[in-house]
Structures are given as C-alpha cells and as structure tokens.
Amino acid sequence: xxxxxxxxxxxxxxxxxxxxxxxxxxxxxxxxxxxxxxxxxxxxxxxxxxxxxxxxxxxxxxxxxxxxxxxxxxxxxxxxxxxxxxxxxxxxxxxxxxxxxxxxxxxxxxxxxxxxxxxxxxxxxxxxxxxxxxxxxxxxxxxxxxxxxxxxxxxxxxxxxxxxxxxxxxxxxxxxxxxxxxxxxxxxxxxxxxxxxxxxxxxxxxxxxxxxxxxxxxxxxxxxxxxx
Length: 228
Prior knowledge:
Layout: H1 3-19, E1 22-27, H2 33-39, E2 61-68, E3 71-82, H3 88-99, E4 108-111, H4 113-118, E5 122-131, H5 139-158, E6 162-167, H6 169-173, H7 176-180, E7 184-186, E8 190-192, E9 205-210, H8 211-227
Parallel strand pairs: 5-6
Antiparallel strand pairs: 1-2, 2-3, 3-5, 4-8, 6-9, 7-9
Helix pairs in contact: 1-5, 1-8
C-alpha cells in the first residue's frame, strides 16, 4: 500500500470521526498524558507506558485522545518495540519480570508458541485504551476508526512488521478483535506466574496483524471510502 493511499485512508477515518462530532488529538508531550488520561476515565498507566518509569520519546511512543464537545472522552497509546534478533517470547519474559514483580519473582512464565515463532521484528504495541462510561458509542462510528488511525500512524512513523495488543477474554467474546481491525487472535497468549497481577490475566488474548494483513484491511476500507 503506497503512502498516498495510506494518507487517503487516514483522511477517511478522521472524516468518519468528524461526522460523529469527534476530534482526535495526538500527544507526544508526555508530561500532559496522566492528567489527560484521567480526564478520559483512566486513573493509571501500565508500567510500559507510565511516564515516570518509561523513558519514551516522540520517536518511541504516542498517545491519541478523542474529544467530544470540548471534553476528552477516551484515549489509547502505542509504543514501538524494535526487537532486533530477540524473540517476542524472550522480550515478554524479560520485561514482565521488571514491570510486574512480586515476592515469587513475578512476570510471565510462558508465551503461546505461535507468538514466539511468528511475531518478530519491529512491533507496535497498542494499550491504555479507555473511554468514559457510556462514551464508546457505536463501534463503527468511534472505536473502529479510532483504532485504524493508530495503525496507520504506527506504520507511517515506525515502518513496523506487526501491530498487536492484549485484550481480556470478555472483550474477545464481544469480538472486539474484529472491531480493532486485527486478523489474528490467540487465546491464553501468556501464562503469568502466581499471583497474577491485578491488571493482567492468563486468560488474555493476543490480537494483532502482520504489516501485510494490516495494509490489506486498510486498502479494503479505502475502497469503501471511494464508493462513498
């Protein structure tokens, strides 16, 4: 997918949000993130995104927030994970011990084999998704275009090989993986050591897409924009 078509798709998603009365703001001034996230209903940041713990730059992470009638109603974040020759399994095992320690050592005990074998290279990890109660709206009107914008920006900024997230089982039962535009869904993606962190679970799903799959999805959406 060439850069011009990527830009057209981005414009289409922004137009969809604008038609719903929504504006998107991109934050790379990380000092403002906790306060803005709190306004949109999120009271904490995961360790990998917490600005007091993670030394992110505008080249390694960004936040997007949605505004409606001047009010921040939701947001999420993306970070670059350039693994080099390290496998995703080794990366998750190593970093989770530092991010979620406990008396028994903490962290991830094992990673699902498909992740360990297939997902590698330059990755964009999306997290921190949160909306004010009752403000998610219709899936096609808000959540879907919002997530597509993340995916396009990650491709444009970082030239990634994969884009992924971890979602709880209850979200998978609602098939939010399809709303997010992901083509892969792997159950029980990570097994956490006991006791599990309060904010993570061994029942989480990996949801994601390779660059090729993501560009196919974006191209498909662009055809719909052209019809309109």
